[in-house]
Amino acid sequence: MTARTPIIAPSILASDFAKLGEECRAVAAAGADWLHIDVMDGHFVPNITLGPDIVKALKPHVSIPFDVHLMIAPVDNYLEAFADAGADIISVHPESGPHLNRTLKRIRELGCKAGVVFNPSTSPSVIEWMMDEIDLILVMSINPGFGGQKFMHSQLAKIARLREMIDATGRDIDLEVDGGVTVETAPLCMAAGATALVAGTAVFKGGPSAYAANIAALKGG
Ligand code: DX5
Ligand code: ZN
């Protein structure tokens, strides 16, 4: 079997916010498959980033899918705003609302793919009874809130467990990993069963002239 090539989703958290549109165009031109957008509220996680107006402003700049990672609570009241702003995938943490099943159904009703995000402490069992409602699973290999953290190897076994759960459905659910993804840790994630990798620091390091090489390296050279 040939090794699977990962979907690469650069996290714009590591980009130059003063020229965000330009940065998004640059990573898309450099081979990014999705654009990973980290939304933080200073409450669910200890950092504040951006809201739906910025997502909307970025949409015309690139045609690759917008992979929106919501780290806000309560999350339900903001789903529509992010869908309207151009999100293609909306991923939520189970801890960010009272009814995960209802939240995922709502995301699909809004025309987006529905994702569930696992904090390092969140158990795979959270989604055991609702695999049919899920289009993407995002495993955090750091505690959410900041880029540039060290990859937690403890999460590799969880990725493998979630891969088994996905395979048992026979459905094509993407398994994405977020946090501390580098050329060293990317192959470990892929070996555990991931299909998509978020990378902030590893894509944006070195500036625009390095983006294509950085993305190619994460894809395996
Ligand atoms: C953190 C975010 C990540 C972060 C990853 O809460 O969800 O997407 O930007 O950054 P790196 O790749 O630098 O660990
Ligand atoms: Zn993220």
UniProtKB/TrEMBL annotation:
Gene3D superfamilies per UniProt: Aldolase class I
Catalytic activity: D-ribulose 5-phosphate = D-xylulose 5-phosphate
One Gene Ontology CC term in the entry: cytoplasm
Organism superkingdom: Bacteria
Cofactor(s) of this protein: a divalent metal cation; Fe(2+); Zn(2+); Co(2+)
The protein, known as: Ribulose-phosphate 3-epimerase
Residue positions binding substrate: 11, 69, 145-148, 178-180, 200-201
SUPFAM superfamilies (UniProt xref): Ribulose-phoshate binding barrel
Residue ranges of the TM segments: none
Family designation: Belongs to the ribulose-phosphate 3-epimerase family.
Residues binding a divalent metal cation, per UniProt: 36, 38, 69, 178
A Pfam match: Ribul_P_3_epim
Enzyme Commission numbers on file: 5.1.3.1
GO molecular function: D-ribulose-phosphate 3-epimerase activity; metal ion binding
GO biological process: pentose catabolic process; pentose-phosphate shunt
Active site: 38, 178
Main function: Catalyzes the reversible epimerization of D-ribulose 5-phosphate to D-xylulose 5-phosphate.
Lineage of the organism: Bacteria, Pseudomonadati, Pseudomonadota, Alphaproteobacteria, Caulobacterales
InterPro entries: Aldolase_TIM, Ribul_P_3_epim, Ribul_P_3_epim-like, RibuloseP-bd_barrel
Catalytic EC class: isomerase
Organism: Phenylobacterium glaciei
Keyword field: Carbohydrate metabolism, Cobalt, Isomerase, Manganese, Metal-binding, Zinc
Pathway: Carbohydrate degradation
Cofactor info, note text: Binds 1 divalent metal cation per subunit.
